[in-house]
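User: Round two. Same drill as before: sequence, then structure, for each protein.

Assistant: Same drill it is. First protein:
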Amino acid sequence: MAEEVKFIINKLNEAPFNKGYTLAKFDELSNFALLQVLNDVFAALDEQQQVLLRNEVPEDTAVRMLTFLNTLNYKPKTENVSQFRQGLIQGGREVVHPIMHWLLDNFADLQKRAYLARYLVPFEVPEEFRGQDDDVQAAYETYQGLLEDFKALHRQVQKARKSGFSITEIKRDIKSLDDEKEQLMVRTQRVRKKAEAVPNFEQMLEAAKVLRAEREKEKELQESIREQKNLLLHAEQQHSQTLDKLKSLKNASLGGGAEGLLSRMQEENKMVKFLVGEKLPKAVAEKKKHCEELQKVLLGDAVGDRDIGDLQQQITRLSRETNVLIEKRMVKNDPIDDKLSLFKQQASIIARKKEATADTLKDVTDEVGGLERELAEKREAAKTLEGSKMLKGDEFKKYVTALRTKSNVYKKKKAELAEIRTEFGILTRTEELLRQENERRKREVQALEAKKGIAGYQDAQENLEKVSSLKSDLDDQKGKTLAEISEMVKTLMASISEKKTKLAPVIKELRAKRTECGELEAAYDEQKAAFLNTTAGLDSTRARMEQEVRGLREEAMQEESRFHYLNSMIDILTVQMERVQNELKIYMHNGEVEPGQKKQKSFRELYTRRIQEQDNLAKMLREKQKTVRASHEPNMRQLQLWKSLDRIMQCKMECLQREQQHHRAEMETVNEHQDHLVL
């Protein structure tokens, strides 16, 4: 309880409460003040609970708090609801402290639950009202739709919060994108205004659009050609894989003949039936059960540390009870039940073996599929290199020679590139010097023009030359662009028709290969089923033999343990018989086990003597009891007389004390009046 109070005080001293309580100050709070603190905790969870209790009727307070606790799914420790309600109204510490501890311990989860409860607590409308009024039914359906929309939006918000993106960063990115969009629009307007001044602008724009569309079509065609090549390569790989599988199946079926193949197919059929009839339904049922449990957890109440502890205690208790029942069953050890349990155990082991075999089969199948995919990727990677197979002999020598030639060419190109870079540096420096000289000459010309009174003549001349050269360049570009566009269109159409003619036989061949591949896959599946059935039959036979061996070993161990148990019992009985024989010898020979030995007392004599001592003690206690009973009544009367005498003496003492006090008071009165004359 003290730890609970310390936890409550620490939480109340933190944000958002900041109460500043100490242990003594919190303990001095009245029941009403403690109830107000509890209401403040409610208000921190839900703003609608912000109420001053002095302005609210106690019954309304109790109803509001109980409703809110029910919404938060609080479970009181006591089962007496009326007592809990009365304790909450009065602000009893035994009721308020557990509630406050639970709220503060699960504050974040309960705050989220209170927020969701504000919108998701169902508002039920009776069926008769909905059936009688269409407006009410429509409003209720709208309400249900809004609830579903809220749930979907809340899930999206939670998902966005868990994704790790910050809202401020997203806003900043959106703002920067808007700024870039505005800048691009301004630049586009400027470029458009400049381009509108060019003659034949509309025709040029249309030609550019057509060119862009044709280039996009060209990209799409190239992409489709690439896809067709990939499909063709994939089909070839599947064809080669199918041929390999067919070869392996033929090799596997050489020794067995038709009967072996039929038996393997039957075994595989049995395995498939087992998977479809037993394994897969169990797996589906387990998945459904798991989904239902997850749904219950999602729709259920918030689980805290206390609930988890209770569940763990319950699991521990049930485990203990199960162990006790198992021990009782083992102690019982009924032979018939043992035989039945042995058969049940064998059946369960076989079932587990079948499930384990099915799981192993699935894992091996997945592994084989992964290895096949990896092999296909390796083959595809090998084909992308120099040829689809490893180079050997003369081919490898040719490859090395070509590689050396390319290496020499690379070295020459590298030396040329170094020379070009050196020359580029020299030319850059020369250009910079010439530019500086040109600037100096321009300044001299401008100074001369200013002296002669014709300033700006050189700039105007240069601008006119630039405009004329630009106009001539634009005219040349117009002609070239139109010619290039028409030539490009012709080239594209020709290449498209050429590609179509080239791909037509390939596509026909691909279709034939696909049908052949389907047939080979069907044959492979049949052979595989036969193989799996044979394997499953052998495994089941082996499992049955292993189970029989295991059962015989367990039976041998049980017999061995029973043998040791009986030997131990025989040893114990032998020792007991020796003790009985010694007792008989002592009794028959008057204390002598053998002639000449010291006499010993038998157990009979010892226990007889102890019985006699206990009888004597019992007689003595009975005599004492009689004496006590005989003197009880006189002693009680004597005790009453002494008590009466004591009360009489007390009364006399009190009377004597009163007389002394009275006498003392008279003496004081006489002393006060002894100096006065009384007439």
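Second protein:
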Amino acid sequence: MSLPFIPSYLQDSSKGRTKSTLIYKNGYAVPRQPTNSSTLLASGGGEPTLSWDPELTYTVVKRAASPIEKAKTTQVEHESLAFEAYYHEKVQYSASETSRVRRVTICYFLRDQSIMINEKRDPNSGLPQGIVLKRQRVSRSGMAAVGNEDVLRPRDFAVGSDVVLFARSYHVYDADFFTRTYFYDNEHLELDDPEPVPDDSNTLRKKQLLETKSLPPVSGGTPDKLQLKKFLENDKRVLRFFSYWDDRANAAAFGQLRKFQLHFFLADDSLQIVEDIKPNSGVLPAPVFMRRTKPPASFGDVNQIRIGSAVEVHARTFIVYDLDEFTKDYFRKNHGVTDFTPVKLDEPQEAAPVVAPITDPALFLIPKPAKKNFQKLLGNDRKVLRFAASIENGRGTDDKRSFIISYYLADDTLSIYEPPQRNSGVVGGKFLERRQVQKPKSKELYRESDLFVGAIIEVFNHRFKLRNADDYAFNYMEANTDAFPASDIDNIQKKLRALIASNSQLSVDVIQEAFRQFDTDSSGTISLAEFKQVIEACGFNLSDQEVITLMRRYDLDGDGTISYEEFSLVLSQ
């Protein structure tokens, strides 16, 4: 079965194989022309050879770039030619001029043969300037190029030629050094010398205004044009005098020495006074003391002002004590002044206020969180001491309520949880969100050493008594006896032996009798609660934490009870 006659494939019946109709010659893709009529015959047919044009089927074949073209593209990828040109613009509704010459720069980008036109900005011209034509490809007809339309080449912009772009005629009068070198090396053309640019009436008037010092007034009684010349020469040039006004002699109680800056604008001989206001000085924050206006007659000639001079403005005397660099340079070049030694002010030395550092984050204007001890956070992460507690408020209805107080060693925070109890009348759940808690009537936080069995803590006017703890809490307290001295078994034993030695009435028989008295079931062992009663009956003043430490140390079998034999080890050691 033969293949159908589809694009880019022809059936060769003589060789029995399919070949492509596209071949490459010298790196370019070109269509393969049929060699005989058998390649165009349908299967089993004998029709004559067809007149076939590959471009009708495949449109225009896009040829691959040769190595020479690739190297050329890389070379000119970031290069552009710059041509200086001008065009004439008609001016309507003006009695002084009918046309104006506008100078532009034509940039020709060699990479894609695109053009951009930019007009240089002329200060104080009042004309919209900048980009005249955005970067795009332009055809020889002067309009935007479409498809493969012939575009403008660099030779079209030779010096002295006229180029029409979008119905506007540009005359090229010069080119930069790189453009001239490019034409000489690549186009084998040496560009002409720069041509002069014609002056319009507006340009001639500006030149005449800058060259002359006196012009006759124009008709209609308008003022002399020297003011315009002065503005053009001195625009944005300001003399700055640093001065002060001392009012301490006139108002002894409320007078003060205040600093000002006198700004004299050379463009129109106007004066502005600005006050230097220090932070927290108590002065109304209005920095402009006198807005820009013509100076009063008492101001005098600005060219006669020197450092130390007194300048009177509206019945206030300002003493100049320093100048800025531009003003110094102005007086040095125009008046030959060389001494610019500043005047030392007689102002009181204000002692810097001593502000105590704020240590409490709550006292900041914007409260800041306290800095965390990351070493403590990493070392005590997920370490929690849990205690069983009861509330101590004197109300009998709360006696049966139980709480779990969790102390987080990582950041010294507390959380309180109340286990729900059925038919108790109290909704259980979270009693206190995890947070740092301060001791009553103090800014000190509760620490780990403040929590042990038997301790009473007050949390927001609620008193809790710690009655028990989990095994992890007991093990932690016994391992850190410096913070929990009530869990130090050695100190407890020394305390017991000291009590027995100081009380002659205590003997082994008395202790044994008390042990048997509280052993109600005659099992030979007693529980923790009964062990506490034995300790109290023997006159031993031990805390709940110390009793639990003894119980945990000598409960050898770990059943929660202690026998007399186990307790006798306490007395014998």
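The first helix runs from residue 54 to 58.

User: Perfect.
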